[in-house]
Fold this protein.
Amino acid sequence: MKLYYIPTTRAVRPRWLLEEMGIAYDLVRVNMSITKQPEYKELHPHRKVPVLVDGSVTIFESAAICAYLADKYISLGFAPLPDSPERAYYHQWLFYAAVTLEPPVEHYMFNVLPNLPEKLLPGFVRLETSKQESQQWFDRVAEPLREVLVGRNYLVANRLTAADIITGGVLLWAKKLGMLLDDDPLSKYINGLMQRPAFIRADEDFYAKIATM
């Protein structure tokens, strides 16, 4: 099993899950020159990370990779069983993080780092929402997470799942960007996740300068 990886990117998320699982994998550190090579496009059509190669399976998108791994090794408990009622809430928060929570963080990041490389979005789209508007957008969509985490450390059945990995990955960016106040309940949540040994092993570059994101 190989994970193609660049520090401080979405590739941290599947690496974190693999570390939590204790599954053997090869970490392939990627740089921009590697992504420009013709053969890399066979791994990812947009020449990005992460990419997971597992035998005959080659899959990209961090949330998809984490969901795949959680189901493949479901006995490890990082996804509820398919016939469990908790499975619905697991899917809900997994998709919420990727589809609803991440966009305002990404727009905020483009405002803070306007020269950040982005292969897919033209400049006028990247900066169509101001920094302040992006913060307000984030605060609004983060509210359901604040509510569900009252009295909990994790999103589903109060145990760590791949939904926390993806949500935590988004909130990690928000924390780096200064979007979370210290008294925000989500700060307590992400700080707890960051204390996990598997996270520390996966994101050894957390304290790198934000310009390297």
Observations:
- The first strand starts at residue 2 and ends at 5.
